[in-house]
Specification:
- InterPro entries: Thioredoxin-like_sf.
- This is Thioredoxin.
- It comes from Chryseobacterium indoltheticum.
- By secondary structure, this protein is α+β, with helices and mostly antiparallel strands.
- It has a single domain (about 1-185), classed as Glutaredoxin, CATH 3.40.30.
- Helix content is about 55%, strand content about 10%.
- It has a 4-stranded mixed β-sheet.
- Helix 6 links the parallel strand 1 (about 70-75) and strand 2.
- Helix 2 packs antiparallel against helix 4 (about 35-50) and helix 4 (about 35-50) packs parallel to helix 6.
- The longest helix is centred in the first third of the chain and has 17 residues, at about 35-50.
- The two termini are about 15 Å apart.
């Protein structure tokens, strides 16, 4: 895990990378995903502007005496990531170091943390101070997962557009609080 950690970037570098990939797509994939980069950057900016640290959650973090690190596998074009990653970066700031490993730069890490056989992101890897994996979380909070299951159970009654809309409304209102709580419970 230390090798992946050393290759990972800070949240600020992640934002810079997203903007660079939007403005100057380096690959056909980046060009094809231009719209998703734009949305992801807008959502991250909104999360950063509206995110407020919950003091009870900070107290819970402090009480756990967690001295490890948070490694997040992500990509800026991902809707789930754009809602979650900024909140996690801000929440742990000043407490635990957070770095982001770009999923598409090296698939060997995400392949160790598949979700039902898929490379779903974001994936949060909780590391102890010696870079051992303590736990992992992702790609979305329980409520978001329940919305996904509802969509998959009956896409005609609950179409993709409704699922995506409901998920983004949830993320906008929740502002990362559920994801942070679920991760705190894994520390």
């Amino acid at each position: 895990m230390k090798n992946y950690w050393d290759k990972a970037i800070s949240f600020e570098e992640y934002l810079q990378n997203a903007n660079e990939r939007l403005e100057n797509p380096a690959t056909p994939h980046d060009a094809e995903y231009k719209m998703y980069y734009e949305l992801g950057i807008q959502r991250m900016d909104r999360t950063l502007k509206k995110f407020v640290i919950d003091e009870e959650q900070i107290n819970e973090l402090t009480s756990k005496n967690f001295n490890g690190k948070i490694l997040i596998i992500s990509e800026a074009w991902c809707g789930d990531a754009s809602a979650t990653v900024p909140a996690l970066a801000k929440f742990f700031e000043g407490h635990n170091e957070v770095k982001i490993f770009l999923r598409d730069s090296d698939k060997s890490l995400i392949n160790q943390f598949l979700t039902n056989g898929t490379e779903s992101i974001p994936k949060v890897i909780i590391l102890d101070e010696n870079f051992n994996v303590k736990n992992s979380w992702g790609p979305r909070p329980k409520f978001g997962h329940e919305l996904l299951l509802k969509f998959k159970a009956d896409p005609e009654a609950y179409p993709r557009e409704s699922f995506y809309n409901d998920l983004q409304v949830y993320y906008s209102r929740n502002r990362g609080k559920d994801a942070i709580q679920e991760i705190l419970e894994l520390l």
